Amino acid sequence: MIDGKKMIIVMDDSTIVLETLRMLFEASGYAVSTASDLAELEAVRARAEADLFILDVQMPEAFGDDVARVLRDVRRVNVPILLFSSLEEAALRERARDAEVDGYVSKNGGVAPLLARVAALLGG
Fold first, then answer.
1. What gap in Å lies between CA 64 and CA 56, rounded to an integer?
2. CB neighbours of 28 closer than 8 A, spacing ≥ 6?
3. What pLDDT does 82 receive?
4. What whole-number distance in Å separates Cα of residue 112 and Cα of residue 52?
5. Which domains does the chain have, with CATH numbers?
């Protein structure tokens, strides 16, 4: 939490997605930090403690579900993690289940379902 606002860390390899989600969540009253690769994610984590992670699944350097497993099993992160991807729904659901994250949202549905899921998880 930063200045009384819940902190969301978003990792995606698309600058457009990162900026869109930053604007959406900041306008909804959240603090947001973004990362486009693993090095940026570690730098962001060093600066701010997250209340929620949103991870793209298909990234050049690492799959978001693999990053989620590292966050949980190695880094001992104990906050909600969502996968956010344009993968087909069944594949995304399976990856989320296998990674033992707190859910997933398809990019194909736009940002409204993501905002609703975040609000449900963070109580906002």
1. 5
2. 115, 118, 119, 124
3. 97
4. 17
5. 7-122 (3.40.50.2300)
